[in-house]
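Anyone up for a design puzzle?
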């Protein structure tokens, strides 16, 4: 029997940082589902695919090979770990993720990768669609300002200068789009535990989630 932890929440709520740490602590496989949508968004830019042309999007889905290994992301064998985080990809990823055909393909892949394993997945629809019967569901939230502040710091640590106002408006725009789409919108599963991380540091969030993992593991 596999053990599944679903971590959902809006943009920049700390899902991936926290999930990675919890994965390491409990020897779970970590799956960054947002990166999968980002890889498809990256490929659509690379190939100049018009996102309103579903036939072309389906062609792309049938052709492209996406892969993840040791925290790195590969499209058709090329490491695109940095490219998938650029503002250009971020600007269109929500539009790509709203396409039904894209979601069917990636959700299928997420379930296949997770089969028979102990996994922590982060995303928007893990607890509501991908693994409705997950052993533990977490919904991470924080104020948009706090999330934007963290994002700016992340970028800064990578040597990239992004304006707080730009990051904040992008986060608000993306949350709104993700929450209002027809296909698997961002929302808290009824049985998810909501954690507001606005006033918590990373270690505290990991501590809270660790307690929940231990309570739910056996
Ligand atoms: O890390 P960040 O919060 O910026 O976002 P992400 O997790 O990399 O996800 C990028 C985008 O992919 C989101 O804004 C959603 O539009 C989409 N996504 C989704 O629809 N379903 C998921 N399970 C994960 C991401």
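Challenge accepted. My sequence:
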């Amino acid at each position: 029997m596999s053990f599944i932890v679903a971590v959902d929440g809006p943009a920049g709520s700390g899902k991936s940082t926290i999930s990675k740490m919890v994965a390491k602590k409990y020897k779970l496989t970590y799956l960054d589902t947002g990166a999968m949508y980002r890889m498809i968004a990256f490929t659509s830019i690379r190939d100049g695919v018009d996102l309103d042309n579903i036939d072309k999007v389906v062609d792309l889905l049938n052709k492209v090979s996406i892969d993840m290994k040791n925290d790195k992301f590969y499209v058709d064998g090329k490491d695109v770990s940095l490219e998938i985080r650029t503002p250009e990809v971020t600007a269109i990823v929500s539009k790509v993720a709203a396409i039904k055909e894209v979601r069917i393909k990636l959700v299928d892949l997420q379930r296949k990768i997770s089969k028979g394993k102990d996994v922590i997945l982060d995303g928007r629809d893990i607890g509501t669609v991908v693994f409705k019967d997950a052993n533990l569901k977490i919904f991470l939230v924080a104020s948009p300002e706090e999330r934007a502040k963290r994002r700016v710091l992340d970028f800064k640590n990578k040597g990239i200068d992004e304006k707080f106002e730009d990051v904040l408006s992008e986060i608000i725009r993306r949350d709104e789009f993700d929450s209002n789409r027809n296909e698997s919108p961002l929302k808290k599963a009824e049985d998810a535990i909501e954690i507001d991380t606005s006033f918590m540091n990373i270690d505290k969030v990991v501590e809270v989630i660790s307690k929940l993992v231990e309570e739910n593991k056996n």
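A detail worth pointing out: DSSP finds nine helices and eight strands in the chain.
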